Amino acid sequence: MSKLLHVSASPRGPRSESLAIAGTFIETFGAANPAVPVETFDLWDGSLPAFGPDAAAAKMAVFAGQEPTGDGWARAVETFQRFDDADLYLFSVPMWNHGVPYILKQFIDVVSQPGLVFGFDPAAGYTGLLTGKRAAVIYTSAVYGPGLPPSFGADFQATYLTDWLRWAGVTDISEIHFRPNLVTADAAAARESAHADAREAAKRMIGG
After folding, report:
1. Contact indicator for 157, 93 with CB cutoff of 8 Å
2. C-alpha dihedral (35, 117, 54, 70), degrees to nearest 10
């Protein structure tokens, strides 16, 4: 059976635009697919492990053809298994300093391990192993917006996460953007459009 995993990168709770749009997505998805379980991985709930010296050494052991050991590696594998247990993903991602929140980068560094998220061949390079999965990503930003001058920032948010998903083997990706430039513009129309896009993406998630 399919499962939808919501990976939440916002710590702002009910004040979060990305989480509000995710709520619309999940509500619509649930109505269309009542038999499909939906789980949330709140990256801020304290369960995400660090990836420090011991875990990094274990990762390098894998590259060297050796057996990885240690608690850091075991917790990374456990986190990956929680992620890999789903075949449908929803990411809610606010923009922080033109990029993604550091907690999401930590998640990516924890799960992106050889033999889990990717394979590697010295001649052919990387191969993504998360094939056959689908993802929807909600990107929000308050100041940056397409077409604005560089003084309003740059997009290292969508470019980074979408590229990571494709590198990992997830090529069926829907993007939902809420970029109203809250400093200078009325956000109501952009918000309504983003929620409408979330409903459409949720309906397409299975069988679309």
Report:
1. yes
2. 60
CA distances from 189 to 27, 152, 181, 203 (A): 21, 20, 12, 22
Domains of the chain: 4-204 (3.40.50.360)
- Per-residue pLDDT tens for 30-79? 999 999 999 999 999 999 999 899 999 989 888 888 888 889 999 999 99
Q: How far apart are CA 155 and CA 115, in angstroms?
A: 30
Could you give the percent of the chain with pLDDT greater than 70? 97
With b for 16 or more beta-carbon neighbours within 10 A and e for fewer, the 130-157 pattern comes to beebbbbbbbbbbbbbeeeeeeebebeb
What angle is formed at CA 143 by the lines to CA 142 and CA 146, rounded to 5 degrees? 105
Between CA 198 and CA 40 the distance in angstroms is: 17
**Contact of 93 with 104, CB cutoff 8 Å:** yes
Please write the tens of the pLDDT for every residue from 111-145. Answer: 999 999 999 999 999 999 999 999 999 999 989 88
